[in-house]
Design brief:
Elements: E1 15-17, E2 29-33, E3 40-50, E4 53-60, H1 65-70, H2 82-88, E5 97-103, H3 106-113, H4 115-132, E6 138-141, E7 146-151, H5 157-168, E8 172-177, E9 180-185, E10 188-194, H6 201-213, H7 215-218, E11 222-224, H8 227-248, E12 252-260, E13 266-276, E14 282-283, H9 289-294, H10 298-314, E15 325-329, H11 337-349, H12 351-356, E16 357-362, H13 371-383, E17 387-392, H14 399-405, E18 409-412
Parallel strand pairs: 10-11, 13-15, 15-16, 16-17, 17-18
Antiparallel strand pairs: 1-2, 2-3, 3-4, 5-7, 5-10, 6-7, 8-9, 12-13, 13-14
Helix pairs in contact: 3-4
């Protein structure tokens, strides 16, 4: 590169970018040298900076044809990546349908059978998919376990989708490996959008991605993009950001609900989590617990609940009788090594906590019946910690697991 440029200041003085350059660089970019476009480079951002300037790795891939081509063609399926369509087509046919397909259980296939089998599944699935589509329908590889399909000039789209999803996508494949025949079940998700002759190819891809992302919320396998999806996503994002804001600011509060016996006498308290919002409103669990569970913030949330509960016990007024306080856990926290070690240390160093701080496991959580969770709860029980099982009869526990767990008490659901 010596002699080609003199003391360059900006990246776009040296390289040609496929899309407008934005700084700081946030993703890997494939670029070419301005004065010698046959020379290709990868620009990879780092998290490092020097004198407030971002450091960027620059890799020369000009001589590595296989690497260069891999950015246009998927080596597993030999399909072009969807980016080639975006690059070569600005406005698609206004009767075209852009479909994004996801093999939803590819991760499980890889875990159970290995990535070699997973790659065979992808190859065979693509072969069957292309065989069932007319030649003018283009299939591209998308990121992860996804594919992009373009179906132009469909006269009767409703008929197409009512048959195509259920008949054209294979529900299972037989893979031959090491003298064995493996039948692999396939679970698909489909998101699609009708082009209007105005939206760019990139926007159509984004809309099909949005439709696909809404499947888990709808309990369906196929979804057409609608403007309401954006409203729903924005609302979900707002709930997520708000909940994270309250967690980061440690705004969880515990309200103590008395537990009484048949004589209406207080025998214990259950700690109920609430959040006092910035505007003074008190948020109920159904307004923040779903976000905590969805984004796997259970450990952070329960750590704050645990700290507050222990502090309440330490600061309990001397003129009031002491009663046990129970906190709710899903079981996921017990599986976290750091959280479990914190519990062991607290109970080992504070004898009073074994009598006054009870752990209430929600039985409807799958983690409550996990082998590791049961083993660790049994360990705590042997230490003298009282373990309660909530909503027994509605979830995954069995009587044998309760015996193994040495549960101190169970709360039986009214419908059981």
């Amino acid at each position: 590169m010596n002699g080609l440029v003199k003391t360059p200041i900006y990246l776009d003085e040296i390289f040609d970018f496929e899309s407008p350059l934005t700084l700081p660089l946030i993703k890997t970019e494939l670029v070419s040298l301005k004065q010698m476009p046959e020379y290709k480079f990868l620009l990879e951002p780092t998290e490092l900076s020097y004198h407030s300037r971002q450091l960027i790795h620059c890799f020369d891939i000009s001589e590595h044809e296989s690497i260069r081509l891999s950015y246009a063609t998927d080596p597993v399926t030999n399909l072009e990546y969807h980016t080639s369509w975006i690059k070569n087509t600005k406005l698609p046919n206004n009767k075209e349908i852009v479909i994004q397909i996801k093999l939803s259980n590819l991760r499980e296939i890889n875990i159970q059978n290995g990535m070699k089998i997973g790659n065979q599944v992808l190859k065979e699935a693509v072969r069957k998919l292309r065989a069932t589509l007319p030649s003018e329908n283009a299939v591209y590889r998308f990121q992860g376990a996804k594919f992009l399909v373009r179906i132009p000039n469909i006269a009767n789209c409703d008929f197409c989708f009512s048959n195509w999803f259920y008949k054209m996508l294979p529900s299972s494949l037989v893979i031959h490996h090491k003298n064995q025949s493996l039948e692999i079940k396939l679970y698909w998700g489909v998101g699609y959008v009708h082009s209007n002759g105005i939206d760019s190819t990139k926007l159509l891809v984004e809309k099909s991605s949005i439709a696909l992302s809404q499947l888990s919320k709808r309990g369906s396998n196929i979804k057409e993009y609608t403007p309401d999806d954006i409203i729903r996503i924005n609302k979900t994002r707002e709930l997520r950001d708000t909940t994270k804001h309250y967690l980061d600011r440690r705004m969880i509060e515990l309200w103590l609900q008395p537990q009484v016996n048949q004589f209406r006498q207080i025998v214990a308290y259950e700690a109920l989590a609430r959040i006092k919002a910035d505007n003074g409103d008190v948020l109920q669990p159904n307004q923040f617990i779903p976000q905590i569970q969805k984004y796997e913030w259970d450990v952070e949330f329960s750590s704050q609940v645990l700290e507050q509960a222990t502090e309440i016990i330490k600061q309990w007024p001397k003129n009031l009788p002491k009663y046990p306080i129970s906190i709710n856990l899903t079981g996921l926290e017990i599986m976290d090594d750091i959280f479990f070690e914190k519990l062991l240390r607290l109970y080992s160093e504070n004898k009073d906590l074994r009598e006054l701080l009870e752990l209430e496991i929600t039985e409807t959580s799958k983690a409550s019946s996990d082998t590791l969770t049961l083993a660790r709860l049994s360990c705590l029980s042997e230490l003298g910690v009282k373990i309660l099982v909530d909503d027994f009869g509605t979830g995954h526990s069995s009587l044998s697991q309760l015996i193994e767990l040495s549960a101190y008490a169970i709360k039986i659901d009214r419908c059981f």
